[in-house]
Amino acid sequence: MKPNFSLRLRIFNLNCWGIPYLSKHRGDRVKRLGDFLNMESFDLALLEEVWSEQDFQYLRQKLLPTYPAAHYFRSGVIGSGLCVFSKHPIQEFTQHVYTLNGYPYMIHHGDWFCGKAVGLLVLHLSGLVLNAYVTHLHAEYNRQKDIYLAHRVAQAWELAQFIHHTSKKADVVLLCGDLNLHPKDLGCRLLKEWTGLHDAYLETRDFKGSEEGCTMVPENCYVNQRELEPFPFGIRIDYVLYKAVSGFYISCKTLRTTTGHDPHSGTPLSDHEALMATLCVRHSPPQHTHSPTHGGPAERSRLISVLKEAWAELDLGMAQARWWATFAGYVIGLGLLLLALLCALAAGGGVREVAIMLWTPSVGLLLGAGAVYLFHMQEAKGLSRARAELQHMLRRAREAHNLDPESQAALFLGQQEGDRSEEQ
Amino acid sequence: MKPNFSLRLRIFNLNCWGIPYLSKHRGDRVKRLGDFLNMESFDLALLEEVWSEQDFQYLRQKLLPTYPAAHYFRSGVIGSGLCVFSKHPIQEFTQHVYTLNGYPYMIHHGDWFCGKAVGLLVLHLSGLVLNAYVTHLHAEYNRQKDIYLAHRVAQAWELAQFIHHTSKKADVVLLCGDLNLHPKDLGCRLLKEWTGLHDAYLETRDFKGSEEGCTMVPENCYVNQRELEPFPFGIRIDYVLYKAVSGFYISCKTLRTTTGHDPHSGTPLSDHEALMATLCVRHSPPQHTHSPTHGGPAERSRLISVLKEAWAELDLGMAQARWWATFAGYVIGLGLLLLALLCALAAGGGVREVAIMLWTPSVGLLLGAGAVYLFHMQEAKGLSRARAELQHMLRRAREAHNLDPESQAALFLGQQEGDRSEEQ
């Protein structure tokens, strides 16, 4: 690789809102998306919520001349909804399906059936190894009372760990997707602190698009306006994140979003806004590479604080999962008693017909409670796994912090200030 | 690191057969295992089938002075059964739960409830990065008619991919565990060809233990003798596999197995035999590192052939999964019809009581068929995902093969020979 090496990457990301039978104007939107991607000829187009494999196959055919490489990540009952189109050959791909992804009995939310995942592509571009990740985390249906918070935090942690462990030899790491996390949400901070990824919107000097970079905006006719009421400009939950290892420097030259219309001011391509980033990678003198537990004292303090916060959240989630498993256990016991009683009544005559009629619901209750028990036992195991990993990393970060003289000084000054404020 | 760097690693691996209430003499065996591990003071002890977390906690307490670091990998409803004890600090750990792992309705086999997984530990030993993996694949209950074959092949592929993608910056890779695969089984060949891992039993010059390195032997009093009838010496399904990257050389100095008794000739520690390996890592001149698609022509030919074989097996598995999903779909239709008929009969009088009595089984049938449908849809997606990854790698290996003049010559000679043998 030449020392004046420089690479420009044009990236497209969109949550396509492609739910068969439910999403409005799906066919037309997919067609227009294909036209747009063909016209713009990005290096990489990363899409989420392409739930129908037919839509992917349609796009694949349509985009073949411009994007010879493509992949659809299959998982769960329905699919992950993730797919990619690339102008450059894909060397390798794989995926990781999140251990926790909502509840099967929340059928109206449907996330559990999708098998939400993170997909990884390895590309070799002019001798540079690019690991590109695309993901979609569990949706947030009620911000005030979010029953999926622990799952989303666990997903953010698994995502961060997957990136951390699979990108150790990559020169450049790129993550695009719908994180269903606001920029200051715990999951988003955890992901950024653990992986060292930078947010294109915060880094670029040339941004054009929706106010505050929002990717769900009230101007979009497909958006549920009531849900966006507390956020006058909309919300920013779709991201382009990146980092380069030592020896390379990556920056975001330009970032564009659509603004509630399609790029040519027609009906929007989706209920989310598209992100279009131009990244520039070039050689740089070797320097300190991001390592989660070996940054400066300030970095480490932030990491320790976010790890603690995530740990506490997962702990709450675990307590809840165990409560449900115990509750289901009691219901199983009661259901068995009820069934025995009904059998006795049916055999004894008298209320025989009523007893027989009640069999169906009581057997249903028993089976349902059994399934709920198994599910929440599994949930507790999944949360406990993520919590153990977090706890280990928290311990290591604290050890590194305690060993570092700079941190010791900062801690000492912090304590002195604390003492002073207590005295006042 | 000094150029005369050399590191000796003593490794222990055992499938502990620790099923609460079912495995014989569990408490006593766990106690003796703890005593043995304490006495031998291995660098790393990797255990499978420690199903009870209490057993892990007991061992953790007992082994704390000799093995200060330990971790239990949690997953599924019951757990993964995997745990590790290390003399050296564990830098990082994570795990990957296999997408496919049997069927929930095969309750008597129980694998589905375990959440079989691969655990990863990252250790830093004298400046050397060691990635140690421990795993346990789906059991084989009937070798003649193995309904889990596609799942085990998919697991072997996911295991190989997980190692491939997470070990890119490791100096040494170690994999221990119960693969439930004989040495020449498809899954075992796939794993070795894709990762470049070497088999300690085949590599070492100093082996002492059971005949042919078997890890389930008829001499073991806990082994089901009938299952081992076709194999007079037993079977070899537990492995110590390893590799080093360029700049390092790893060899297996000694390999020992127990031989149906505990190491001091008492009752065995488990129904499996323990593996004890002494590995030696030292510096070596940088040389060609294993890359799945960039080996020599012979290596690539073997890889292509095993990828093709695995692809065909997954394809068969997919067809079967789809057949079951379609069948369940028909049963759902029939169940709905039956339920409608029963409602009509119940309303009409006459056979009212019989109709009501049949509600329970018909609702059960409907729900059961629904669950089977969802499960096999998910199975088909999982198999299809692994097949797509295999297919991509097969294409890339073939491309590399076609571009290589040596392979071309080999292919040409092979064809000539083929032509000659056809002529004869």
Question: How much of the sequence of chain A is in beta strands?
Answer: 15-25%
Q: Which stretches of chain A are low in confidence, meaning pLDDT under 50 for 5 or more residues running?
A: 410-424
Strand order in the largest sheet of chain A: 3-4-2-1-13-12-10
Task: Name the assembly state.
Answer: homodimer
Biggest beta sheet summary of chain A? 7 strands, mixed
Distance between the termini of chain A: 61 Å
Question: Helical proportion of chain A?
Answer: 40-55%
The arrangement of helices and strands of chain A along the chain is EHEHEEEHEEHEHEHEEEEHHH
**Integer average pLDDT of chain A:** 89
* Alpha-beta content class of chain A: alpha+beta
Tell me the number of helical segments of chain A per DSSP (H or I, 4 or more residues long).
9
Shape of chain A: globular
Radius of gyration of chain A: 25 Å
The two chains with the largest interface, and their residue counts, are: A-B, 46 and 46 residues
Could you give the count of β-strands of chain A?
Answer: 13
